[in-house]
């Protein structure tokens, strides 16, 4: 199939997912109310009890919450793909003269569109509680670009999980076991300088820590006294981009292959 045909199929499927949002607006709750709750609970409540050297905790926190929301794309996409397998939509797509990869591309792009809405919502609420960017608009846009790239990679990982797990219960369990350790064993919510040596090293080498550190650097929300030692902390921007590219290079072919096998059943 040619490039123009692929683009047409992706556009049609992307529009299908967006029309679902218009017809079922409740789906927007997870990308609007949940981010607001995270910002308020962690920023307002925890902010009064946690101090960060050289930075306001609410500003320090925002990059971590942004990153956490991108990780939730794993569960969102996995549930969507598993649902399409269960309700027969995949069988219908298989009978049409369309690109099989377009099904997954359309799904993952629509979930990234939801991530954009989540970022806008969190940025507005963060601004209201005192979060600011200090490195200028271009660098702030670059920070959000890294976040959306992470969200896109997580969507492809979720597509792979949904194709392999094929049930909502299994998807929820796998997504929880993946997202929770990645989030809380990182620098998303707390500085790492007070942790024991072995645990601090583990958190610094967590890929999520590199993305969070890159966003903090681009937003101008870095703190002092973090004791930069591990490479992900010293060079967060290039390493986060490299890790996201590596993840995409692994999961995209694997998800397309898994989809072909699932559609052939």
From TrEMBL:
It is found in: Cell membrane; Membrane. Residues 26-262 form the ABC transmembrane type-2 domain. Keywords: Antibiotic resistance, Cell membrane, Membrane, Transmembrane, Transmembrane helix, Transport. InterPro entries: ABC2_TM (IPR013525), ABC2_TM_bact-type (IPR047817), ABC_2_transport (IPR000412), Nod_factor_ABC_transporter (IPR051784). The chain crosses the membrane at residues 28-48, 60-83, 104-129, 141-164, 171-190, 237-259. It holds the Pfam family ABC2_membrane. It is a multi-pass membrane protein. Belongs to the ABC-2 integral membrane protein family. This is Transport permease protein. It comes from Streptomyces yatensis.
């Amino acid at each position: 199939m040619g490039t123009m045909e692929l683009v047409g199929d992706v556009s049609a499927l992307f529009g299908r997912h967006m029309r679902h949002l218009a017809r079922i607006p409740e789906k927007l709750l997870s990308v609007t109310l949940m981010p607001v709750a995270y910002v308020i609970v962690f920023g307002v409540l925890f902010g009064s009890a946690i101090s960060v050297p050289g930075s306001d905790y609410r500003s320090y926190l925002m990059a971590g919450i942004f990153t956490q929301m991108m990780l939730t794309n794993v569960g969102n996409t996995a549930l969507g793909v598993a649902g399409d397998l269960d309700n027969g939509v995949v069988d219908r797509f298989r009978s049409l003269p369309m690109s099989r990869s377009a099904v997954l591309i359309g799904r993952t792009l629509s979930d990234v569109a939801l991530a954009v809405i989540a970022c806008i919502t969190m940025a507005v609420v963060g601004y209201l509680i005192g979060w600011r960017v200090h490195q200028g608009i271009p660098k702030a846009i670059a920070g959000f670009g890294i976040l959306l790239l992470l969200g896109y990679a997580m969507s492809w990982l979720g597509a792979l999980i949904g194709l392999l797990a094929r049930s909502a219960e299994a998807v929820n369990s796998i997504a929880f076991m993946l997202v929770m350790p990645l989030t809380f064993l990182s620098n998303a919510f707390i500085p790492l300088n007070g942790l024991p040596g072995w645990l601090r090293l583990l958190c610094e080498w967590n890929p999520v820590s590199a993305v969070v550190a890159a966003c903090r650097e681009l937003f101008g929300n870095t703190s002092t006294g973090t004791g930069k030692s591990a490479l992900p902390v010293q060079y967060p921007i290039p390493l986060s981009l490299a890790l996201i590219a590596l993840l995409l290079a692994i999961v995209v072919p694997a998800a397309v292959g898994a989809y072909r096998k699932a559609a052939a059943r």
